[in-house]
C-alpha cells in the first residue's frame, strides 16, 4: 500500500477527556443511586416501626459514609480532569480502576450495615468493616495509580497546573489508603464501631483537601484567585 495511505500510529495514541469524563459521571451517578437501595423498610410487628427504624442506624451511617465518599471522589475527579489535557491508554486504565472500585462500594456498605445491626461487636461485623476498609483503600490506590501515571507523563496535563498538584494528590491518596487500612485494623482489634466512625470522617479529609493540602502554596494561591 502506498505510504500516503498509511495513518501514523501516534495519531491514535491520545484522545481528549470528554468521553472519559461523561462515562465517569455516569458511573458515579449509578453508584450513588445504588447506595440508597440498602435503605429499606425493616420487618416489624404492628406498632413497632419506630423501634425497627432506630435499630437499623448502621444502615444510615453506612449510607452517609459511602455517599460522602463517592460525592467527594466525584468532586476531586472533576477537579483533576480540569487539569488533564488528554488521555492515553495508561490513564484510561487508571480511571477505569477508579470506577471499578467506586461502583463496587454499595456491596460492602450493605454488608457492614447488615452485620452491625445483627451484632455490632461480633466477628462477622469485624469481617464486614475489613471488607469495607479494603475496598475503600483500593479506591485510594486507584487514585495513586492515576497520579503516578500523570507524574510519568506530564505531557498529558495542562501547562498551567500548580507545580505540586500531582505530588500532593499522590500524597493524599496514600494517606487515605493507609487511614482506611488502619481503620480496618482498629475495627478488628478494638470494635467495628471505631472503623465505622472512621469511614464517616475520612471523606471530610478528602473534601477539605480537594484544592490542596492545608497550608500548601497551591491552596493559598487558588483561594486568592
Give a description of the structure.
With 225 residues, the chain is mostly helical. The protein has nine helices and no strands. It is elongated, with a radius of gyration of 21 Å. Residues 1-5 and 218-225 have low confidence and may be disordered. InterPro entries: TMEM175-like (IPR010617). Belongs to the TMEM175 family. It is a multi-pass membrane protein. Keywords: Ion channel, Ion transport, Membrane, Potassium, Potassium channel, Potassium transport, Transmembrane, Transmembrane helix, Transport. It catalyses: K(+)(in) = K(+)(out).
Put the structure in a nutshell:
It contains nine helices and no strands. By secondary structure, the protein is an all-alpha fold.
- How many helical stretches? 9
Order of helices and strands: HHHHHHHHH
Structural class assignment: mainly alpha
Topology, number of strands = 0
- The mean pLDDT is 86
The fraction of residues assigned to DSSP E strands is under 5%
Give the helix level as a range of percent.
Answer: over 70%
Distance between the termini: 55 Å
Rounded radius of gyration (Å): 21 Å
Largest sheet: none
- The poorly predicted ranges are 1-5, 218-225
Shape: elongated
Question: Any chance you could write out the topology, listing elements then pairs?
Answer:
Elements: H1 18-36, H2 49-55, H3 57-81, H4 89-103, H5 106-118, H6 123-152, H7 165-189, H8 192-208, H9 217-224
Helix pairs in contact: 1-3, 1-4, 3-5, 3-8, 4-6, 5-6, 6-7, 6-8, 7-8
Pfam families: TMEM175
Protein name: DUF1211 domain-containing protein
Subcellular location: Membrane
Amino acid at each position: 500500500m502506498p505510504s500516503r495511505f498509511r495513518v501514523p500510529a501516534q495519531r491514535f495514541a491520545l484522545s481528549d477527556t470528554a468521553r472519559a469524563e461523561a462515562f465517569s459521571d455516569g458511573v458515579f451517578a449509578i453508584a450513588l443511586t445504588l447506595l440508597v437501595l440498602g435503605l429499606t423498610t425493616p420487618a416489624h410487628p404492628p406498632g413497632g416501626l419506630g423501634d425497627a427504624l432506630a435499630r437499623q442506624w448502621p444502615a444510615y451511617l453506612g449510607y452517609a459514609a459511602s455517599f460522602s465518599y463517592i460525592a467527594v471522589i466525584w468532586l476531586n475527579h472533576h477537579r483533576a480532569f480540569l487539569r488533564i489535557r488528554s488521555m492515553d491508554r495508561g490513564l484510561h486504565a487508571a480511571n477505569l480502576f477508579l470506577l471499578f472500585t467506586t461502583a463496587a462500594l454499595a456491596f460492602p456498605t450493605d454488608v457492614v450495615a447488615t452485620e452491625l445491626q445483627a451484632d455490632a461487636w461480633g466477628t462477622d461485623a469485624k469481617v464486614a468493616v475489613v471488607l469495607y476498609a479494603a475496598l475503600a483503600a483500593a479506591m485510594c490506590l486507584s487514585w495513586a495509580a492515576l497520579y503516578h501515571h500523570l507524574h510519568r507523563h506530564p505531557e498529558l496535563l495542562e501547562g498551567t497546573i500548580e507545580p505540586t498538584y500531582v505530588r500532593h494528590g499522590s500524597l493524599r491518596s496514600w494517606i487515605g489508603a493507609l487511614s482506611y487500612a488502619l481503620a480496618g485494623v482498629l475495627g478488628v482489634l478494638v470494635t467495628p464501631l471505631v472503623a465505622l466512625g472512621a469511614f464517616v470522617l475520612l471523606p471530610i479529609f478528602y473534601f477539605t483537601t480537594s484544592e490542596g493540602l492545608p497550608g500548601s502554596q497551591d491552596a493559598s494561591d487558588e483561594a486568592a484567585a
